[in-house]
């Protein structure tokens, strides 16, 4: 059961990070960029997430702005990292295009060179999650949804009370919409359509503000 949700947002192009407080401790959804590491630790400490209290880190996908602090936090808090198997090569090899088909050779080289994970920040996840994976053992009444499109291994975390942490399937800047940066548009649209079968009250995207599913349909 979630007792509180903390949204950690450093503004601009920085991704949203969500800290869920449960009766058993904390679960962190995504970890942000390495450049925001100091500020992230300060926010976690402010909200009571200290050594021994962080049950799990869940990555919605492997991009550096979501996985950049995962390995460091695992060491610091003696916790575990969970993500989908289809994005593992992104964080093991620091190749953000490992499972993607879009992008020129030059853009791939530049992005991985400028923004890739350093050797100490590369990692292999402790837990691989698939569609329907239950998070109950970590104190969260929720499950994993497979929502590929932005990347092959993109996932959402759906809680029993209707919160969907959707990673980069959607953005919400001026209005909520499917992320324009889709590697596979057909898979992305299928993931959006899939959500209609669930009782979702609030969608919390990796970039931008939370919104309701009805706002998306307007």
Structure description:
The chain is α/β, with parallel strands linked by helices and 218 residues long. The chain has a single domain (2-217), classed as Metallo-beta-lactamase, Chain A, CATH 3.60.15.10. The chain is built from seven helices and twelve strands. The strands form three sheets. A six-stranded mixed sheet has the order 1-2-3-4-5-6.
Cα gyration radius (Å):
16 Å
Along the chain, the helix and strand elements come as: EEEHEHHEHHEEEEEEHEH
Main pleated sheet: 6 strands, mixed
The percent range for helix content is 10-25%
Specify the CATH class: Alpha Beta
- Tell the overall outline: globular
Strand order of the largest sheet: 1-2-3-4-5-6
Using DSSP, what is the number of strands? 12
Total count of helical runs of at least 4 residues: 7
Derived from helix and strand composition plus strand pairing, the structural class reads alpha/beta
* Poorly predicted runs: none
CATH topology: Metallo-beta-lactamase, Chain A
Cα distance, first to last residue? 31 Å
Overall average pLDDT: 92
CATH architecture title: 4-Layer Sandwich
CATH superfamily: Ribonuclease Z/Hydroxyacylglutathione hydrolase-like
């Amino acid at each position: 059961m979630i007792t509180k949700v903390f949204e950690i947002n450093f503004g601009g192009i920085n991704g949203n990070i969500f800290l869920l407080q449960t009766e058993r401790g904390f679960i962190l959804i995504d970890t942000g960029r390495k450049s925001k590491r100091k500020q992230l630790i300060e926010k976690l400490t402010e909200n009571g997430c200290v050594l021994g209290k962080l049950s799990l880190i869940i990555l919605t996908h492997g991009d550096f702005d979501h996985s950049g602090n995962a390995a460091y936090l695992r060491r610091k808090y003696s916790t575990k990292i969970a993500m989908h198997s289809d994005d593992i090569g992104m964080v093991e090899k620091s190749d953000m295009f490992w499972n993607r088909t879009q992008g020129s050779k030059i853009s791939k080289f530049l992005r991985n060179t400028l923004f890739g994970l350093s050797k100490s920040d590369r990692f292999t996840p402790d837990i691989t999650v698939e569609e329907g994976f239950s998070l109950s053992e970590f104190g969260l009444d929720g499950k994993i949804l497979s929502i590929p499109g932005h990347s092959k291994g993109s996932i959402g975390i759906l809680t029993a009370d209707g919160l969907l942490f959707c990673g980069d399937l959607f953005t919400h800047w001026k209005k909520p919409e499917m992320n324009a940066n889709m590697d596979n548009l057909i898979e992305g649209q299928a993931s959006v359509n899939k959500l209609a079968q669930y009782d979702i009250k609030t969608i919390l995207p990796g970039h931008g503000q939370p919104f309701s599913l009805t706002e998306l349909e307007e």
